[in-house]
């Protein structure tokens, strides 16, 4: 019976530690996402002066870049 109590305590402790680790990873992942978005915005702002990232990279562009202002200007 003591062995079962001990095993139960170890399993509970392991579960709690695992839960704490998962919560910490979720918080870290959230922070990494925020940093990635901030970096993306900074890169976009930097590259816009050079014609946008698609022009700089010179490849197929999978990112939408609003060209509505340019289109209006070109039409006028």
UniProtKB/TrEMBL annotation:
Concerning Pfam families, the annotation shows: TLV_coat
Q: Does the keyword Kinase apply?
A: no
* Keyword terms: Disulfide bond
Q: What is this protein called?
A: ERVV2 protein
Q: What is the phylogenetic placement of the source species in the record?
A: Eukaryota, Metazoa, Chordata, Craniata, Vertebrata
Which gene is transcribed and translated to give this protein? Ervv2
């Amino acid at each position: 019976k003591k062995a079962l109590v001990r095993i139960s305590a170890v399993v509970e402790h392991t579960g709690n530690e695992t839960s704490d680790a998962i919560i910490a990873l979720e918080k870290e992942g959230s922070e990494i996402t925020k940093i990635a978005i901030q970096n993306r915005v900074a890169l976009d702002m930097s590259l816009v002066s050079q014609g946008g990232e698609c022009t700089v990279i010179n490849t197929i562009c999978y990112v939408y870049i609003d060209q509505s202002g340019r289109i209006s200007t070109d039409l006028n």
